[in-house]
Design a protein that fits this description.
This protein has 11 helices and 10 strands. It is an alpha/beta fold. The strands form 2 sheets. The chain has an 8-stranded mixed sheet. A two-stranded antiparallel sheet has the order 1-2. InterPro entries: LysR_HTH_N, LysR_subst-bd, WH-like_DNA-bd_sf, WH_DNA-bd_sf.
Amino acid sequence: MDLATLAVFRAVAREESITRAAELLGRVPSNVTTRIQQLEAEIGVALFARETRRMVLTSEGKAYLDYAERILNLADEARQQINPEGPGGTLRIGSMESTVASRLPSLLAAFNRDWPEVTIELSTAPTRQLIDAVQAHRIDCALIAIAADDSWSALDALETIPVFREELVLLVPKGHRAVRSPADVEPMALAAFAPGCTYRMLAEEWLMGGSPARSRLKIQEAGSYHAMFACTAAGACVSVMPKSVADTLSRLGSVEAHGLMTVDTHLAFRPGFATPAFLEWRKRLLAASDIEPSASA
């Protein structure tokens, strides 16, 4: 097993195809097939289930992919750290969906224009999953939401810098009565991302806090802010999201927004992680920050 073989394995796992992986890697399909067969023989288990048109990871293959990702990412990090002439290599950025939509497009475009040597890999997930991914070396850094009283102990092992401040709003169907407290909210159904989302946690705490309605709150998990907004406009649910996102979705229907609180978005990374590409990305985020230094002290 070597890094080249691990890279082949990762490409096949991502593409679910020998042919597409070979095209991506600039190899012939027979070479990719041989590499996978040699790796499976060395490990002693099947990493893929061969279907008619797809190569699907087995349970053992999924577990092995996690290790392969970490090894390859660490190797890339080491190359960048040892030869820090300038930004290069791959920068793996994780982010919440809302931050990608409202904050990152222009920043990423400018970064790519100035540093085309850097390959950006961008992924999205709720905060909890992003923290885990940074810890496991699957990504290099992440933009996450941290509540003032956040007790997630995993944050103790990461460095965090506040970069953006978001106003969270409660969206209710058009014509809903005035919302002065959680008791005014109907229906008692919340459209939200899967567990691990800070905004969901805060919404649940606000809607259920100190109220007999606690047991009546239903959660309708949604895969996007578009779905949350549409469910709210249809009258089926309420939802909570950054005002900047809600404003961009207003074309999907009519809702009413009630301000709830502000929550800071932080850049999270492992202590000591300082590749040239990351340092440049951090500098640009801080330059675009809307949080005064005194506010983050």
